[in-house]
Write a structure and sequence with these properties.
heterodimer; A: 2 domains; elongated; B: 6 strands
């Protein structure tokens, strides 16, 4: 993990230095354990204590551009057995998708969608 | 999500032209119930300059769509001819009245809302005049750019009408505030040198008169102030350059007096020419009369 990237983030959001520091700690903790760590925006809001939701999304967006974490829109299987596709944006999600968990094409419903920020070693 | 289906949500996101704002809008769709949503309505009045069109107001309004508590409202005063801008008082009063009526209308419709103003150029003059003359007008946050308000404006006298310090975004390459001050009456070059008052945060940028009116600037500097009252510092403040020659010339002369002198000389010459023709006509008439009598 490059501390330079966090320094750049602090330069970009000088008013949000505390938020960026908490993000750095969260990412460091996530990287200290094996596997992929995933967070919903609401969970990140609870962990990072931003001034507001909007500024947190702006910081996370910039952090994503720097490769510190990755944002996905995940389509969950209607069977409840896990994800069936990850997309960069909600706009990229197709109206129908093959659900490998149940073996057929399904129409993507809004309750199957999740926004995920992932951190991976 | 607040939408009935995926297609509706996608269509909504596609209405955002700015990718960063689209991303925030997308994240808002996944905002969990534990993330608080502000409930108090905050109306942001966007007041344009003399001849700027509504583009910047629309751009700022779009940037605000992701802050559900903010409700942008465009207030205008129509086209304002430069001659009317130059003439002191006479034509300005009507424009001030028009904006005042709109502001009072907003207050009547939303008695409990916070009302903030973002004003550019001649709009800043109108805001200052309204604050000074009408103590019932109370504003939550005031953001000025390209200001042509008198630098001696008495902010202390209106402090009870303001909640937060006023932000004054200054363009170091902006010649128009100095032009306004030197060419006419009642204006000031606060958009170039600032107010230097404890109730105002002067913020310098390497900008010309309308360079503030872009989405990147609004997002970086205006929204944090409007949403949270945060004043994001400009890196240019500590590096600002010395005054340009053009600026020195504009500030050195009171062009309005030269213009008046020119007008007076012009009128005298005009009068002299007219008088000359009149006298010449009289002489001719006398001549004809004399010939006729003979």
């Amino acid at each position: 993990m490059s501390s330079d990237k966090f320094d750049i983030l602090i330069d970009e959001f000088p008013e949000e230095t505390a938020l960026v520091r908490r993000l750095r700690e969260l990412i460091a903790r996530a990287l200290a354990t094996p596997g992929r760590k995933e967070f919903s925006p609401t969970r990140l809001y609870d962990e990072l204590h931003p001034t507001n939701y909007r500024i947190m999304i702006r910081v996370l967006s910039s952090a994503s551009e720097k490769g510190l974490l990755h944002k996905h829109i995940r389509v969950e299987s209607s069977s409840g057995k896990g994800g069936i596709g990850d997309f960069n944006s909600l706009i990229d999600v197709p109206p129908r998708l093959y659900d490998s968990r149940i073996g057929r094409d399904v129409e993507v419903m809004q309750d199957q969608l999740e926004m995920i920020y992932s951190i991976e070693r | 999500m607040d939408f009935n289906n995926l297609q509706e949500a996608q269509q909504y996101l596609q209405t955002f032209t700015d990718p960063a704002e689209r991303e925030i809008a997308e994240a808002n769709l996944f905002r969990g119930p534990t993330v608080p949503t502000p409930v108090r309505k905050h109306i942001v009045v966007l007041l344009h300059g003399m001849n700027t069109n509504a583009e910047w107001q629309e751009a700022l309004a779009e940037s605000m769509r992701n802050s559900p508590e903010l409700e942008p409202t465009v207030v205008g005063y129509g086209n304002f001819h430069p001659v009317k801008f130059w003439l002191p008082y006479v034509y300005r009063r009507g424009r001030i009245k028009k904006v005042l009526t709109d502001l009072r209308g907003i207050r009547t419709r939303y008695p409990n809302a916070d009302i903030s103003i973002v004003a550019h150029s001649f709009g800043t003059y109108i805001v200052a005049k309204i604050l000074a003359a009408y103590s019932d007008v109370k504003l939550y946050r005031v953001l000025l750019c390209g200001a042509i308000v008198d630098t001696d404006f008495d902010w202390n006298a209106v402090s009870s009408q303001l909640k937060d310090p006023v932000i004054n975004d200054i363009g170091r390459r902006d010649i128009w505030p100095s032009m306004a001050k030197s060419w006419s009456w009642g204006y000031g070059n606060s958009g170039v040198i600032g107010f230097q008052n404890s109730l105002v945060r002067d913020r310098h940028f390497d900008y010309e008169h309308s360079d503030f009116l872009n989405v990147a600037h609004m997002r970086q500097y205006w929204l944090p102030f409007l949403v949270d009252g945060k004043v994001v510092s400009s890196s240019f403040s500590s590096l600002r350059s010395v005054m340009s020659t053009r600026e020195k010339i504009l500030r050195a002369f009171c062009w309005k007096y030269l213009i008046m002198l020119g007008c007076a000389v012009g009128a005298l010459i005009h009068y002299d020419v007219v008088l000359g023709f009149f006298n010449y006509g009289m002489e001719l008439a006398k001549g004809f009369t004399a010939i006729w009598s003979a």
